[in-house]
Amino acid sequence: MRGIHGAISIRLAGPDDIDDLSALEHAAFRDPWAVVSLQEALSSERHAVLIAHRDGAALGYAIASTVSDEAELARIGVATAWRGRGLGRLLLDATVQECSRRGVSRLFLEVRAGNAVARRLYESAGFRQIGLRRQYYGDGEDAIVMEKALED
Q1: 2-149, superfamily in CATH?
Q2: pLDDT for residue 30
Q3: What are phi and psi of 107, to 5 degrees?
Q4: Which of 38, 66, 75, 130, CA to CA, is 20 to 30 A from 49?
Protein backbone atom coordinates (compact mmCIF):
# COMPACT_ATOMS: atom_id res chain seq x y z
CA MET A 1 0.00 0.00 0.00
CA ARG A 2 1.44 3.35 -1.04
CA GLY A 3 0.60 6.19 1.21
CA ILE A 4 2.04 8.45 3.79
CA HIS A 5 5.62 9.35 2.91
CA GLY A 6 6.46 6.12 1.17
CA ALA A 7 5.35 2.54 1.28
CA ILE A 8 3.21 1.52 4.24
CA SER A 9 2.35 -2.15 4.47
CA ILE A 10 -0.67 -3.30 6.44
CA ARG A 11 -1.04 -7.02 7.03
CA LEU A 12 -2.54 -9.50 9.46
CA ALA A 13 -0.32 -9.70 12.53
CA GLY A 14 1.18 -12.93 13.81
CA PRO A 15 2.79 -14.18 17.02
CA ASP A 16 6.15 -12.65 16.05
CA ASP A 17 4.54 -9.19 16.20
CA ILE A 18 3.68 -9.37 19.91
CA ASP A 19 6.52 -7.10 21.11
CA ASP A 20 5.64 -4.41 18.56
CA LEU A 21 1.93 -4.68 19.37
CA SER A 22 2.58 -4.37 23.09
CA ALA A 23 4.86 -1.34 22.64
CA LEU A 24 2.30 0.38 20.41
CA GLU A 25 -0.53 -0.47 22.82
CA HIS A 26 1.31 1.03 25.79
CA ALA A 27 2.19 4.17 23.82
CA ALA A 28 -1.36 4.67 22.53
CA PHE A 29 -3.60 4.02 25.54
CA ARG A 30 -3.77 5.12 29.15
CA ASP A 31 -5.43 1.78 29.95
CA PRO A 32 -3.36 -0.65 27.83
CA TRP A 33 -4.21 -4.26 27.31
CA ALA A 34 -1.90 -6.78 28.97
CA VAL A 35 0.40 -8.81 26.74
CA VAL A 36 -1.71 -11.91 27.44
CA SER A 37 -4.79 -10.15 26.03
CA LEU A 38 -2.90 -9.25 22.87
CA GLN A 39 -1.66 -12.84 22.59
CA GLU A 40 -5.23 -14.13 22.97
CA ALA A 41 -6.39 -11.82 20.17
CA LEU A 42 -3.56 -13.03 17.93
CA SER A 43 -4.42 -16.67 18.54
CA SER A 44 -8.19 -16.34 18.08
CA GLU A 45 -9.83 -16.82 14.69
CA ARG A 46 -12.56 -14.42 15.85
CA HIS A 47 -10.07 -11.54 15.95
CA ALA A 48 -8.54 -9.64 13.07
CA VAL A 49 -5.27 -8.07 14.22
CA LEU A 50 -3.69 -5.81 11.62
CA ILE A 51 -0.29 -4.16 11.87
CA ALA A 52 1.22 -1.36 9.80
CA HIS A 53 4.94 -1.21 8.96
CA ARG A 54 7.23 1.08 7.04
CA ASP A 55 10.89 0.24 6.48
CA GLY A 56 10.69 -2.53 9.09
CA ALA A 57 9.29 -0.30 11.84
CA ALA A 58 5.87 -0.96 13.38
CA LEU A 59 3.78 2.21 13.10
CA GLY A 60 0.30 1.18 14.24
CA TYR A 61 -2.23 -1.59 14.60
CA ALA A 62 -5.93 -2.36 14.76
CA ILE A 63 -7.90 -5.14 16.43
CA ALA A 64 -11.46 -6.15 15.57
CA SER A 65 -13.48 -8.96 17.13
CA THR A 66 -16.00 -10.74 14.93
CA VAL A 67 -19.09 -12.73 15.89
CA SER A 68 -21.32 -14.01 13.13
CA ASP A 69 -21.99 -11.06 10.80
CA GLU A 70 -21.06 -8.35 13.32
CA ALA A 71 -17.73 -7.03 14.55
CA GLU A 72 -16.41 -4.64 17.15
CA LEU A 73 -13.41 -2.45 16.53
CA ALA A 74 -11.62 -2.91 19.84
CA ARG A 75 -8.41 -0.96 19.23
CA ILE A 76 -6.61 1.34 16.84
CA GLY A 77 -3.22 2.46 18.05
CA VAL A 78 -0.76 4.65 16.19
CA ALA A 79 2.83 5.44 17.17
CA THR A 80 3.13 8.96 18.54
CA ALA A 81 5.30 10.19 15.66
CA TRP A 82 2.72 8.99 13.13
CA ARG A 83 -0.40 10.53 14.65
CA GLY A 84 -2.23 13.08 12.54
CA ARG A 85 -0.66 11.81 9.32
CA GLY A 86 -3.46 9.60 8.02
CA LEU A 87 -2.24 6.25 9.33
CA GLY A 88 -5.27 5.80 11.58
CA ARG A 89 -7.50 6.14 8.53
CA LEU A 90 -5.43 3.59 6.59
CA LEU A 91 -5.74 1.14 9.49
CA LEU A 92 -9.46 1.80 9.83
CA ASP A 93 -10.04 1.27 6.09
CA ALA A 94 -7.96 -1.94 6.14
CA THR A 95 -9.97 -3.19 9.14
CA VAL A 96 -13.26 -2.47 7.36
CA GLN A 97 -11.96 -4.39 4.31
CA GLU A 98 -10.89 -7.35 6.46
CA CYS A 99 -14.23 -7.40 8.27
CA SER A 100 -16.08 -7.29 4.94
CA ARG A 101 -13.92 -10.17 3.69
CA ARG A 102 -15.03 -12.12 6.77
CA GLY A 103 -18.71 -11.52 6.00
CA VAL A 104 -19.34 -8.78 8.56
CA SER A 105 -22.29 -6.52 7.79
CA ARG A 106 -22.11 -4.16 10.79
CA LEU A 107 -19.05 -2.82 12.59
CA PHE A 108 -19.38 -1.26 16.05
CA LEU A 109 -16.99 0.67 18.28
CA GLU A 110 -16.82 2.63 21.49
CA VAL A 111 -14.84 5.85 21.71
CA ARG A 112 -14.16 8.17 24.62
CA ALA A 113 -16.57 11.10 24.51
CA GLY A 114 -13.63 13.48 24.91
CA ASN A 115 -11.56 12.00 22.07
CA ALA A 116 -12.56 14.49 19.38
CA VAL A 117 -9.80 13.41 16.97
CA ALA A 118 -10.93 9.77 16.97
CA ARG A 119 -14.59 10.75 16.75
CA ARG A 120 -13.90 12.87 13.65
CA LEU A 121 -11.97 9.98 12.09
CA TYR A 122 -14.84 7.54 12.66
CA GLU A 123 -17.48 9.99 11.45
CA SER A 124 -15.47 10.71 8.28
CA ALA A 125 -15.37 6.95 7.63
CA GLY A 126 -19.17 6.65 7.83
CA PHE A 127 -19.70 5.67 11.46
CA ARG A 128 -22.72 7.15 13.22
CA GLN A 129 -23.48 7.51 16.90
CA ILE A 130 -26.07 5.03 18.12
CA GLY A 131 -25.67 5.22 21.88
CA LEU A 132 -23.92 6.51 24.96
CA ARG A 133 -22.49 4.50 27.84
CA ARG A 134 -22.26 6.75 30.86
CA GLN A 135 -19.14 6.46 33.01
CA TYR A 136 -17.96 3.55 30.88
CA TYR A 137 -14.24 4.04 31.38
CA GLY A 138 -12.43 3.52 34.67
CA ASP A 139 -11.86 7.24 35.07
CA GLY A 140 -15.61 7.95 34.72
CA GLU A 141 -15.55 9.22 31.14
CA ASP A 142 -18.52 8.35 28.92
CA ALA A 143 -18.21 6.14 25.83
CA ILE A 144 -19.95 6.97 22.58
CA VAL A 145 -21.15 3.85 20.75
CA MET A 146 -20.87 4.09 16.97
CA GLU A 147 -21.89 1.82 14.10
CA LYS A 148 -21.08 1.49 10.41
CA ALA A 149 -22.98 -0.68 7.96
CA LEU A 150 -20.53 -2.45 5.69
CA GLU A 151 -21.24 -2.86 2.01
CA ASP A 152 -21.27 -6.28 0.39
Answers
A1: Gcn5-related N-acetyltransferase (GNAT) (3.40.630.30)
A2: 85
A3: -115, 130
A4: 130
